[in-house]
Amino acid sequence: MMSALSTLSAERIVAAVLGLAVLLGWVRLALWQRGAGAAGAAHWRLAALAALQPLVAGALFLTLFPPAWQHAADELVVATAGTPRRAAFATRGRLVALPEAPRLDRAEAVPDLATALRRHPATRRLVVLGQGLAPRDLDSARGLPIVHTSPAEPPGIVALALPAPVAAGAAFSVAGRVAPAAGARVELVDPAGRVTDRQPVAADGTFRLSGTTRAAGTARFALRLRQPGGRLQEEADVPVLAVAAAKPRLLILAGAPGPEIKFLRRWASDAGFAVQTQIAAGGGIALGDAPIALTLSTLNGYAAAIVDERAWAGLGTGRSTLLEAVRGGMGLVLRSDGDEGTRAWWRGFGLAPAGRGGVVPVVLPEVAVDTPEALALARTRRGIGTRDVPEGSDLDDPVLPDVTRLGGKWSGVDVVPFLADAGGNPLAAWRPLGTGRVAAFAVPDSYPLALSGRADLFADWWSRLLGAVARPADGPALIAGPFWAGERAVLCGPAAAGPVVQPDGTVTTLVRDRGADGCAGFWSTRAGWHQAGTGGAAQVFYVHPAEAIPALRAGRDRTATLQLARGAGAAPQGRGTDSQPGSPWPWFGLWLAGCGALWLLERSTRGRGGMRAGPVA
Amino acid sequence: MSADALLRTWTGPARRRQSTGDALWLAPALLVLAALGWRLGGTAAALGLLATGLAGGAWLVRRRLQRLDERWLVRRFNALRPDLEDSAALLFSAPDRLNPLERLQRARIEQRLGAGRPEDLAADWRRGPLLALWGAALIAAALLMLWPSRAGRPVHLAPSAEHLPVIPGVPRLVAQNLRVVPPAYTGLPARDQGGLDARVPVGSRLEWTLRFAPQPGQPRLGLLAGPPLPLRRDGQDWMAARQVDAAFLYRVDPADPRAPLAPLHRIDVIPDAPPQVRVISPAASLTLVRPGQRAWGPVFAATDDYGVAAQARLRVTLAVGEGENVTFSEREIALTGSGPARDRRFAPTLDFARLGFAAGGDLVVQLIVRDTRSPGPQETRGPSLVLRWPAPKAPESAGLEGMVNTTLPAYFRSQRQIILDAEALLRQKRALPAERFAGRSAAIGDDQAILRGRYSQFLGGEEETAPEHAEGDGHDHSGGLPPARPAGFGAPEDVLAEFGHPHDDAAASSLDPATRAILKNAVDEMWEAERLLKQGQPAAALPPAYRALRFIKQVQQATRVFLSRVGQERPPIDPARRLTGKRDGLASRALPVAPVDSGDGEIAAAWRALGDGPGAIRGAIDLAGVERWLAGNRDRLADPLALAAALDAVRADPACARCRAVLRGQLWLALARPPAGLAPRPRPDAAGQRYLRLIGGRAP
């Protein structure tokens, strides 16, 4: 109250002094004009001098006591990360700055949006400046109309598809998009620090890199974005989880012996499967392992079965048992070996590729070894050599074998084509059946891969094929991110139950929020692999450092804020106004301009009469 | 005064002056020689050189003194004493052989002789040159002795950079120097370096000079793999030396239980690469002789990292002749290269006439160079260069169906061998008992039978037995050398004869009718020769054998063999078994398959334990398994020392996060890529499973 009084009095005093000064100026002008007689100034000059006096005085007053801004009382301007200074300056209305925002002059700093809304309970409308609201503030902003004009996309990695868990030893790929794309290159660096893949970025900014895993466990690859000159622009962690199921049981039923079965069996037993092979040799003679009875109880112990067309044709009642086992969760892979009768059955099931038939070649990925650099890249994907296959022995002259597939496309409603070759053509398709899945593999003979030094590709195909259909099993699952240190991560499902083990071994207990479907929030403090839950239900997730991949994070915030803005509907018209201290600087500018004009006018000889010198004060 | 006394009197001063002068002239040379010896070989060498020099000098002085004889004195008198009137020679003549006038003259000059002094006859000193020589010699000797030596220069210790905590009273490395002395043959200078990590040529000698504060008891260099290297005290410093043959890791160990573990240092070796041979000319490996060419001058360049020996060898293989008469001769020619040691040129000139190289022959040369490594220089054989002198006429091959083999299969040649054997047997006939003679004749007959059998093949198998597929008959499918030397050396068309054989049903189909008729005659003659040989009559067998050879030569002149094209043919169906319903010996059987264990489980376990995901061990980790693996798989790794160093760092400080990250990176390099197994899909939650069960799924 006191301050208000003193302010008022000060304003009044200053106004009085200024008014007096203007009056004095006018009087002096009038006296001088009368004294000058015929040699007095021209009328326009006199009028200008007289008019400028109150203008300058007024401007000075407003500089000292800038008038308050009048704005909508229910509008709150929120500065978020990347708010341009100019935009903040130009806004009218109450400005609050969230912790991510840059330093702004007249903004009120708030720890989060909820606090700001509590402080300004009249808020009915939000104007969001900058990249957008962080996940922390989205819930607080829900329900309020939001105006968000997003700035330009920040440069860097703006989209990133991190790899899903892969089998130990399998290849994985990382895709994403960078901006700007012109001339940029991306590199994938393996945990030992070697570049394992290097690609130029496509014209639209997208890229796709691939690497290979080794033993089961967590690994940290790195994605490097290089500018056209080769300068490192950004580096992002690529967390990869390699898993190895414990001795899954695999049943292979073959209608005849052949190289495909031989190499399939070899791969499966080397890759940790407990393989049961039964190869019919005709006339009731079976080769392979000791035969088992195809009953539902037996089959329930198997993770997957691989059956070729000829074996399927000879199964008889075994077919329905197999399908019943699939309904119970088992995976079934049907392998084509050219039996037309069975192909018809497939077709009825939606699993035979339809359309232009015939046999077409599979496009295999080329391994470039023509330059030392390419050879070094290829080596990093191999792992060390074994006694039988010394390192790099098969890289000297890579041969691409001829592998063919059945032509045509899958078109069924619930059929999912997958396992694309290098040309983008799917080689297999699966469809659900009960809780299990059935897949068809359209490559009759994949064994030439194993014979020509591409055993890794052979293993990769079959690993992904079986991984798509095999009976689900417990194991470390990956919670898809990305998460950043210092941000809230939402853990749902079994992960929400258990404690979280941080990278340094610290254990944090989670509290489930019953209001949020039993999910739990977790605020990570350090980057690295985290484990949530215990035992078989354990899940892992990777937390990026707080400052990592800023463009991706900004994009996420912007998208979320824009979605929120679209969902909240139109903003209501403001009722009533509120005032806020204004800035003195525009008035100061006006005062300075007025003073300058006065000075110029006083110095100028224009409009002066006669030869006499100017007025003498 | 007798002549001798006169001589002694008058040459005495000159002799003394000359010996002194000689000594003064030789002394600087001896001085420089001794300084050189001291510099190169130490005091003993200096003394040895000095003694040799003194002996040589004494001999030289003595020899020069002998020149001051009577004749010298006479010449000297005549030159210097005009008052002796050129008659000094009379003084040394026997008085009884002089005529009176001479005696008179002699008496006169004897009187005048006393007017001069013997010292006047001595040569002048020539002080200027002598002083210049002495000055130069003294400067040279001083330079030789005082010039700073590389090997002997004092060691400057660099301050230690191990960043170990200072604990009062505990010895700690404060300064060090590592001297690297590469093997002499590399020609590299010894170098001193302040750091304890080095990359040195293999075979280098390393000399450590270390200083500790305070002085430790018995410090040593602890090698990560191997026994420690004790240090010996040398004044303030401690020294050790070692010859390096392989890379190793070590740490400076003051051998004090209170001392903190010092960081590891690494010595890498640069292996000595074998020399490389490049052909500069000709551009292609096969060159044809130009008309009128008489010599050939291929040019080779040999490079090596340290030096190529100037002496090299050129292996010259000469193949002369055609058809079955190809003879090989091999010799080696010593060459001397030119150019710098690291990039030598060898440009031999091969004269055709001297080598005996003629039309229809091939000249193959190969350069064999060695580097200067010692011991055991490395030898490299360069690429072979072939110079071909085409035969005057080439067989025509036009308008023929099928592949044309322009040379005959190589086994057509052993008829000559049978003749040679038979003739050799005839020569030994007297020395051999009759029974043995008959036996050997029969053996040759057997050879003849086999040969006839082979030729019969070309006629459609007209022989009573099946002699083919005898051991070493050139029809072995596998292994070893080609059945015989190809008829025309290196003939590019001779691939079939070299690596295989015509495989059609009847070999006879590959011969045209005229050739076939001649061949039939040859086989007939072989029959005859075989019969006679088996009857023990090699002398009688010779004419038919020669006739057979002549016929074969005629066949050879046809030089055309037809080979029918063969496609992929499946094995014929055995009608005896087909559709009989017999299933004897057929039964179900197990085909066992055992998974291959890569044996990398220890590495994978350590990889997981060192990470921050599931299975991570945050405290001390048992790394013994990794060490065992490393000991057995050193050769599979590109850089096993880096893994060993990382292991050591983690063992020393299990809590060091950076060391763990480094070790994890190294373990990644040691991991094999297993065949991709199964990554099972995540289990759907209860609601999802219920949903899937309810919608069921329809099977056709």
Automatic annotation (TrEMBL), chain A:
Entry keywords, A to Z: Carboxypeptidase, Hydrolase, Membrane, Protease, Transmembrane, Transmembrane helix
Matches recorded under SUPFAM superfamilies: Class I glutamine amidotransferase-like (SSF52317)
Membrane spanning stretches: 12-32, 44-65
Database matches in InterPro entries: Class_I_gatase-like (IPR029062)
Keyword Protease on entry: yes
Designated name of the protein: Carboxypeptidase regulatory-like domain-containing protein
GO molecular function: carboxypeptidase activity
Presence of keyword Hydrolase: yes
Organism domain of life: Bacteria
UniProtKB/TrEMBL annotation, chain B:
Keywords: Membrane, Transmembrane, Transmembrane helix
Ranges annotated as biased composition (Basic and acidic residues): 466-478
Domain of life: Bacteria
Transmembrane stretches, start-end: 21-38, 44-61, 130-147
Region Disordered, annotated ranges: 463-497
UniProt name for this protein: DUF4175 domain-containing protein
Organism: Novosphingobium aerophilum
